[in-house]
Amino acid sequence: MNNVSLVGRLTKDVELRYTTKKVKAVGSFVLAVDRDAKKGVNEKTTDFIPIVVWGKTAEFASKYFAKGHRVALQGNIHTRMWEDEQKNKHYVTEVVADKVFFADAKYRELDVDDCQEDSIACEEEEVTEEEAAETAEEAVEEAVV
Fold it and tell me: What does the pLDDT look like over 77-124, one tens digit per residue?
């Protein structure tokens, strides 16, 4: 089963583009995800994972996420290949996120589906850090189940 759940920080703002003739939005960003330190080593390592979001989720992420925000997401891993003009093959592995959530304590956990499908205004609201962490953990548990 190809399921991914990640929590990390955006390394830069979401880059929003549209497919040809502005048919569908596509957003991309890099998520810095900490990896637990190995036994005997006190330093954590960080993985920088390319993320792609499509459609309303891309528009949502572009509107509400910015560099440094802590984000939780669910999706799956995709690998693709292409050839450039010099016939060099390029490979990329990225996470295509289906759902994205705020994981920062200062932001409300927004229900992305409600904000996007119903076109309602999503407003910021103070949330405790424990509530934000709990919601992110629930999202990760749902993806694992």
Answer: 999 999 999 999 999 999 999 999 988 766 554 444 445 443 333 333
- Segment 39-53 shows an average pLDDT of 87
Q: Which domains does the chain have, with CATH numbers?
A: 4-144 (2.40.50.140)
Q: How many CA atoms lie within 13 A of 14 on its CB side?
A: 24
3-state secondary structure string across the chain = CCCEEEEEEECCCCEEEECHHHCCEEEEEEEEEEECCCCCCCCCEEEEEEEEEEHHHHHHHHHHCCCCCEEEEEEEEEEEEEECCCCCEEEEEEEEEEEEEECCCCCCCCCHHHHHHCCCCCCCCCCCHHHHHHHHHHHHHHHHC
